[in-house]
Amino acid sequence: MTEPTDPSTPRVGVDEWVASHEGRRAHRAGVAGRVERELARVPRPAFYLAFGAVAALLPAFTSNGYTIRVGFDTLLYMLLALGLNITVGYAGLLDLGYIAFYGFGAYGYAMLASPKFGVHWDTLAVIPVVVVATAILGLLVALPSRRLLGDYLAIVTLFFGQLFVTVYQNGEAMSVLGFTKKYDVTGGPNGIPNIDNFNAFGFHVGSLQAYYYVALAVFLAVLAAVYLVDRSRTGRAWRSLREDPLAAELMGIPVNRLKLVAFACGAAIAGLAGTMFAALNTAVFAADFDVPTLIIVYAMLILGGAGSIGGVILGAVVVNVSLEVLRTPGHATWVFFVLLAATLVARMRPWRWVAVVLGGTIAFGFAVHAIVSAVWPRGVHGQAAVGGILGSGLRHWVVLPSNPMTIGNVAFVCLVLAVLGVTLLHGRLQKLALVPTLYLAIFVWENRLAVEPSVTRLILVGVILIVLMNARPQGLLGTSRVEIV
C-alpha cells in the first residue's frame, strides 16, 4: 500500500486546509516542478529499497575502516532516530530521556554477554531479552507520566535520563536499600569491558564490514515494521494524538494506552540499537549515553522532519556525515565559507547587494590587514586553518595573531553583539553593517573556532540547523503546519 498522491484524497491525521496550503507552497514550475511531481508518484517503499541497495554497496567501494565505521554509526543513529520518531514524530510526546533506553540496551547486552558475571549467552537469546526488557522499562517510565504533556513530560523524562547516567556511573557499589552488601553491577566509571561479539549458531561477527551489514539489515527490517505500523490504525491514531489529544480522546481513541505503546516501541528500538553498539565497541560506559548523544539524535529528527521515515534517513546522513567532515579544521573551513556564501545568495535580495557586500568585505579586510601589519606586525604572523590557495589568500587578508586565544575570545563576544545589532537594523543600513560583521565572523573563525574542532563542529552544525529551520521549519521531508497568529 502506498501513500496517496491525489490531493483530493483525504489523509487521516492531516488537516486538509493545511495539506492544500502545503501543496500550493510546494508547487513549482519548469523542470524542477516536473521532476518533483514525477517523484511523488513513486511509492515510498521504493525509495527505502533504493537506499538499502546503495548503502549495501559502501563496503564494496571502499575498504577504509574509518569510512565504514562512519557508515555503521550513521545506521545506528538512523535506528535511534527511527525509534524517537515514534515517540516524538508520531505520538507527539517530548521524550528527553530517550537516550537512557539506548544505554539500558547496551548495558543489558554487556551483562549477558561478557565476563562481568560469567554469562555468555548466544546473541539470538540476548537480543530478544534485552529488547523486551527495554520495552518494559519504557512502559514503566510512561506509566506515571502518561497524563503529562509538553514541558511537564519533558522534565520527567529528562530526570529519568539523568537518573540512568548517575546510577550506572556509580554502579560499582550497589546494594538493595542498604540492607545487603555492595556489589559491582555496572563497573562504575570503568564501564563493562571485554564484551562478546555477536555470535549465533557458532558463527561470530568480528569484522567491521560484517557489523555494517548487520546494522543495515536490522535497520531495514525495523524500518519496514515501522512503515507498516504507520499505515495501520495505530499509526493513524498516533498522528491524531499528536495533532490534538483532546479531540482524539473525544472521538474515542484510547489516548493513554497509545502513549504507553509509543514509549514502549521507541524504547525497544533504542535498546536494539544499544546491543549493536555494545557488541561492536566491546565496552560500554555511562558517558556514552548522556545529553550530547540525545541532542545529536534530536537534531537528526528535527532536520529530516519529525513524523517522516525518509526524514530519519536524510537527517542522520546529513548530521553525522557533517560532524565527521567538521572534525578536520581544513574541511570545516571550507564548509564555513561555503555556508556563508550560500546564505548570502539565498537570503539577500536584490542580488546586486550580494556583490556589494562581498566586495565591501574583501576591501575592508585588505584595509584592516594593511593597518594592523603596519601598527602591530605580530598581528599578521599567525597561520590559517586551511592550506592551499584559500589559506594563502587568508594569510594576506585576515588578521592572524601569533597568539590568538585572548583576542579571539574578545572578538567572539563582539561578534555576538554585532550579530544582535545587525538584526535590529533594516534596509541599506543593515546590508552595509554586514560588511564588518562578516569580516569579524571570519576573524573569529580563523583565530578561535577553527583551532577547537571538537566544539566548533557542534556550533557549526547548530548554525546549519538554524538556517535550515528558518527556511523550512517542518524539516527537509516533514509535513508543514500552518498556524494562525
Could you explain the architecture of this structure?
The structure is a single chain. This protein has helices at residues 16-26, 30-41, 44-56, 58-61, 65-90, 98-112, 123-142, 150-169, 208-230, 233-243, 245-250, 255-281, 291-304, 309-325, 329-347, 352-375, 388-395, 405-424, 427-449, 453-471, and strands at residues 113-114, 119-120, 199-200, 203-204. By secondary structure, it is mainly alpha-helical. The chain has a two-stranded antiparallel ribbon with strand order 1-2. A hairpin with a 4-residue loop joins strand 1 and strand 2 (119-120). Mean pLDDT is 86; it is low at 1-5.
Distance between the termini: 37 Å
Annotated CATH topology of the largest domain: ABC transporter involved in vitamin B12 uptake, BtuC
CATH-defined architecture of the largest domain: Orthogonal Bundle
- Return residue spans where pLDDT drops below 50 for at least 5 consecutive residues: 1-5
Shape by Cα distribution: globular
Total count of strands: 4
Q: How would a crystallographer describe the biggest sheet?
A: 2 strands, antiparallel
- Please write the CATH class name of the largest domain: Mainly Alpha
Strand order, main sheet: write it out. 1-2
Proportion of residues in extended strands: under 5%
List the secondary-structure elements in sequence, H or E.
HHHHHHEEHHEEHHHHHHHHHHHH
**Class of secondary structure makeup:** mainly alpha
Radius of gyration, CA atoms, in whole angstroms? 26 Å
Number of helices: 20
Binned, the helix content reads 55-70%
Number of domains: 3
Average pLDDT number: 86
